[in-house]
Amino acid sequence: MLIALFGLMLLQPLISYFVDIQFLSNLFLSLIFLSGIFAISIKKHHPIIATLISLPFLILMWLSHFVDIGGYENIKSFFGMLFLLYMIILLLNHIFRQDEVTKEVIFGALVVYLLMGLMWSFGYDLVDSLIPGSFKYPENFSKLSNNLLTYFSFVTLTTLGYGDITPVSPPALAMAITQAITGQIYLTVLIAQLVGIKIAQQMRKKN
Prior knowledge:
The chain is 73% helix and 2% strand.
């Protein structure tokens, strides 16, 4: 899942000039969703629920290559958000139940952070679709990647605030504020949790 997430964010923009960017984006998103379902397969009902939530998104996403799904784009974004939220909750529950800091715990924490950025990007896309004009884009927006809201989401999550894209409508403003706060709180709590686990782990080894 971590590799697929990095592929979506880093590899896709680099090779978008040579292949169909929409196909590539869909491929990475499919890998993220499928690997996510596999990652939570410890309990039987979790992957079943995740599969049911992800199916509308995956079907509509690939169907859009052949037909115009029109208003169903909103449904796709909604189920994408719902699936990622479900994944984040399950992964966080797993991370905060660990009593040792391992590579898997660190990778899991990083995956959650990246999933947050992706989840909010679906939310921004949904808001921009339901309330046109929710974001003010650069003048050359038409020449930029169609995944610009994903870029905006991660810029907001990390509180970089370049200012090239700005939320305008009240729902978009509320989402941006919530994401910025959530991103900072997550990092603070996560670091405290990992440090606490590491200290307890070292004390157990000494004893």
